[in-house]
Amino acid sequence: MHTTIRPASDEYAPYYEKYIAKVAEGDILKILTAQGDEVRALFANIPADRAQFAYAPGKWTLSESLLHVIDTERVFAYRALRIGRGDVTPLAGFEQNDWVPLSGANDRGLSSLLDEFSAARAATVALFSGLPADAWARRGTASNYPVTVRALAFKCAGHCQHHVSLFRERYLA
Q: What is the 3-state secondary structure (H, E, C) of the chain?
């Protein structure tokens, strides 16, 4: 099945290997769905006063980090939509460090952010679930590197997994 094929190293920028390597073997649609459940469960019992916690000076708060995951997922999904539909226009990068301070994450509750994560993840899964099999291998350019739709699905999961590990190790330990 096309959703179980891992992307080859020529399907994404070398920087993203660290994220793609974090994704378990299996059907990426099932992985994305289960990961959404995992994030909701992880955040379900976090006290509201923990939302503004940053594990070190100059680091993002828990709220900012969760919204960063949401924003990044939306960017990756948008790229997948464009490339999946055959758009070969090179897609610009984004600067996460410019986005976070303007996000307003610290003015929101964790439950609001978690609802937004759930909506974004559901939209991501719906997008990838609805793509025809041949769309997964379509190539485009994002941030000046070649990328496939398949790699973008794995980048969504791997990036989120990276932050789930950080949440557990640095924010919730």
A: CHHHCCCCHHHCCHHHHHHHCCCCCCCHHHHHHHHHHHHHHHHHCCCHHHCCCCCCCCCCCHHHHHHHHHHHHHHHHHHHHHHHCCCCCCECCCCHHHHHHHCCHHHCCHHHHHHHHHHHHHHHHHHHHHCCHHHHHCEEEECCEEEEHHHHHHHHHHHHHHHHHHHHHHHCC
Q: Which residue has the tokens 């399907």?
A: 11
Domain-wise residue ranges, the chain: 12-171
Question: What distance lies between CA 123 and its chain's CA centroid?
Answer: 12
pTM listed for this prediction: 0.97
pLDDT tens, position by position, for the chain (173 residues)? 799 999 999 999 999 999 999 999 999 999 999 999 999 999 988 998 999 999 999 999 999 999 999 999 999 999 999 999 999 999 999 999 999 999 999 999 999 999 999 999 999 999 999 999 999 999 999 999 999 999 999 999 999 999 999 999 999 98
Per the CB < 8 A criterion, the answer to whether 127 and 80 are in contact is yes
**Class of the CATH domain delimited by 12-171:** mainly alpha
Residue 18: what residue type?
K
